[in-house]
Amino acid sequence: MSTRADFILFYDGLCPICRREVAWLRRRNQNAKLGFVDINAAEFKAEVYGKTMSELVAEIHGVYEDGRLIKDVAVFEVVYQAVGLGWLAALLRCPVLKPVWNVLYRGFAKSRPGLGRLLGGKACHRSGGCSNW
């Protein structure tokens, strides 16, 4: 993991949706404020962050340089701000809309495996089988 990045985004490298989003974010990451870690990489250890692989596969997580771990829509707020999309981050932070974004994200997170399979993704993870997806 790069210690130079302000924030590390944990992503599911087996998920085609996630890979596309990360590729797009990498192109926008001109100031290298973000680092990217595939949670399915052999060297990745979820327990270092007090999480299980199942937890990390179930919802998006990221970690600040100081070790603070965040998840869900809060991750997108940080990530979009870091790549110069402050307007989008502001929309996600809007107190009136935040509950809506959280509900929408939870729905997406639950349906991501099926959507990923439609896009040709693998349904199995090194966390111990296919049921996690």
Automatic annotation (TrEMBL):
<dbReference type="InterPro" id="IPR007263">
    <property type="entry name" value="DCC1-like"/>
</dbReference>
<dbReference type="Pfam" id="PF04134">
    <property type="entry name" value="DCC1-like"/>
</dbReference>
<dbReference type="InterPro" id="IPR044691">
    <property type="entry name" value="DCC1_Trx"/>
</dbReference>
<protein>
    <submittedName>
        <fullName>DUF393 domain-containing protein</fullName>
    </submittedName>
</protein>
<dbReference type="GO" id="GO:0015035">
    <property type="term" value="F:protein-disulfide reductase activity"/>
</dbReference>
